[in-house]
């Protein structure tokens, strides 16, 4: 029995030593390796473009619109996917519109002196603009022109790029970004061609549920829709933002947008404005 006692004593001694060694060395080594192999917390990438974006914002607040536009274009060229790119696009759109729809001087604006026999529609066709754009640029209250009147004229070449899945309508001027608008809802058949090339067919104005024409007293505060030449494509106003025209039923198919956005867009386009529709 003495040998059995010695064997049990040896097992106890070596077992205790092994347990001590495991806790002292092996377990500690495993913990160190686990800590080393654990993923380090992700640090946000440095925002190198933030000072430039803030500088552009400051220019806009100071009313330096041309300088703001140049700063934002440069910013987007350098940081097209940066954390402030989307904000920069929206600010650039606001800046472009502020320059265009006002008498604010800009390199791309010229002066037109009204001559005998001029009417607004004829002047707009002559200078390749739209009557409403000329009215808004020059703060005109009506379509009447006076001989000798000096009008600021811009010469944009607008086109629309509609992205169905992104629900965005992008306005381009001479192929460059001008402004973008968000689509609130898409009501189209499930199967659509991947790309549709079309144009603006008609600007539709509504007041109290009835169609009104450009130049009428009701046009200025009217609700706007854009009908495209592609069947079923109407850019129509969100009923919740339609004001007095809230009772106007939406079309069976089309793209829903804010009423104020459609008023802007309708002032910039005509029935020759090209439109590209994609997914």
Rounded radius of gyration (Å): 33 Å
Q: Which structural class best describes the helix and strand composition? A: alpha+beta
Report the mean per-residue pLDDT as an integer: 85
Give the neighbour order of strands across the main sheet. Answer: 3-4-5-10-9-8-6-11
Walk me through the structure.
It is globular, with a radius of gyration of 33 Å. Helix content is 37%, strand content 25%. It is an alpha+beta fold. The chain folds into 3 domains: 52-100, no CATH class; 109-154, Membrane-bound Lytic Murein Transglycosylase D, Chain A (Roll); 158-278, L,D-transpeptidase catalytic domain-like. Residues 2-27 have low confidence and may be disordered. An 8-stranded mixed β-barrel has the order 3-4-5-10-9-8-6-11. The chain has a two-stranded antiparallel sheet with strand order 1-2. Helix 2 packs antiparallel against helix 3 and helix 3 (65-78) runs antiparallel to helix 4. The N and C termini lie far apart (88 Å).
């Amino acid at each position: 029995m003495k040998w059995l006692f010695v064997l049990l004593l040896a097992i106890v001694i070596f077992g205790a030593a092994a347990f001590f060694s495991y806790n002292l060395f092996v377990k500690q080594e495993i913990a160190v390796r686990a800590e080393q192999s654990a993923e380090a917390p992700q640090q946000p990438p440095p925002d190198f473009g933030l000072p430039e974006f803030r500088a552009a914002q400051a220019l806009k607040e100071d009313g330096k619109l041309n300088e703001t536009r140049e700063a934002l274009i440069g910013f987007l060229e350098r940081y097209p996917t940066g954390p402030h790119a989307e904000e920069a696009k929206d600010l650039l759109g606001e800046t472009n519109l502020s320059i265009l729809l006002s008498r604010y001087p800009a390199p791309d604006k010229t002066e037109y002196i009204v001559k005998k026999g001029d009417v607004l529609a004829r002047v707009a066709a002559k200078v390749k603009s739209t009557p409403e754009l000329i009215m808004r640029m020059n703060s005109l209250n009506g379509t009447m022109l006076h001989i000798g009147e000096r009008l600021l004229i811009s010469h944009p070449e607008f086109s629309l790029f509609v992205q169905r899945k992104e629900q965005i309508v992008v306005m381009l001027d001479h192929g460059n970004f001008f402004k973008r608008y968000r689509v609130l809802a898409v009501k189209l058949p499930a199967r659509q061609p991947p790309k549709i090339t079309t144009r603006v067919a008609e600007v539709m104005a509504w007041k109290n549920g009835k169609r009104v024409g450009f130049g009428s007293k009701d046009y200025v505060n009217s609700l706007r829709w854009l009908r495209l030449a592609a069947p079923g494509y109407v850019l129509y106003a969100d009923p919740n933002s339609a004001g007095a025209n809230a009772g106007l039923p939406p079309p069976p198919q089309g793209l829903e947008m804010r009423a104020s956005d459609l008023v802007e867009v309708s002032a910039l386009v005509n029935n020759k404005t090209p439109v590209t529709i994609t997914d």
